[in-house]
Amino acid sequence: MTTTRGYHHGDLRRALLEAAVQAIGESGPAALSLRDLARRAGVSHAAPAHHFGDKAGLLTALAVEGFDLLAAALDRADGDLLAAGVAYVRFAVGHRAHFEVMFSPGLYHGDDPAVLAARSRAWAPLRSGIAALPGGSERDALAAWSIVHGFATLWLAGALPPGIDPDPEVAARSVIRRLFEPGE
Amino acid sequence: MTTTRGYHHGDLRRALLEAAVQAIGESGPAALSLRDLARRAGVSHAAPAHHFGDKAGLLTALAVEGFDLLAAALDRADGDLLAAGVAYVRFAVGHRAHFEVMFSPGLYHGDDPAVLAARSRAWAPLRSGIAALPGGSERDALAAWSIVHGFATLWLAGALPPGIDPDPEVAARSVIRRLFEPGE
DNA sequence: CAGCATATCTTTCCACTGACAAGATGTCAG
DNA sequence: CTGACATCTTGTCAGTGGAAAGATATGCTG
Fold first, then answer.
1. Of A24, A29, A183, B154, which has fewest CB within 10 angstroms of its CB?
2. Nearest to B107 among A30, A107, A183 (CB)
């Protein structure tokens, strides 16, 4: 909890973003209510507007934060493509609220400069990891991104058939490896 | 099904579903309004409740319709996995409204029996196509589904980097092939 | 320290939404 | 014709997003 130090609230912006993550985790992005966030933060229902303009503005900030977190997680894989793929899935499962918003462009201002910049920051590590691979092509990068993104999305949607390994990282590792060793 | 014919409206249920597809195509599933659908269909704001109960009920019906459409499209590939993958992407792009709802489980009653049945109908063709492949495993099915679903989702989200083939089917075919011929 | 400009937050208001209840209307069986 | 029923309308309520205008704390300038 942030200290009630400094301004009226302390750091309302941060508090609202954290409340949003929690609320989305409970009921999904569609059911998000600005007034509910304001209640959670202990301020009036109009306070959020000052920081984010409107609901889409708040979700835009959340998307930027998400892309930055994702970029950091992928960077930590340090060129290891399999590790990066697993990190992608780990991020999606561990930061479900961010992830769901990030890839629901109808919810926020996708053409916001901050979003565009953060998005490309997240895309860079995967791209360079592919480029470092012998014979790595644009198509390989697209295939790698598609497979991890698809797996993560299906996992979050609960659309995967039963019988999958209950640990998303284990299941993801197996699926991603399929991209490198098709035979086995 | 329950398509009663020849009442006040004619077939309000159908009209509402089609209006929903159109409205979602314009503004996304989050901005969907039952009252707007009622206006589009020329009925009062409370008429939809009688057919679908509530908003989630309407989206449940839309999801079932979507899974059935998808199952039919995949069946038409007739065991050809590459064709099925392309058909998956074609469905997602061509029936964006259905697709977005289908994989947003927070929006509808995902545990509805009709949904479960339709979902497994859609999953069956891909599964059997994999099984028919020499050495086809559960992991292969998962990888195939992940890659097409991921590509379709990223395409719809507009998250793909520039420079991709503007025709989603062409780009998808190239990516999917990566699963079969990793070398080239 | 004093006074002011500004960022932050509150109060008030409006149009809209989803959901419910009760009544009206068309359709069909007998 | 009549009653039963599904269909649709009207009226209502709490909750929401957003705008406008006022209140208050904070930091800056002198």
1. A183
2. A30
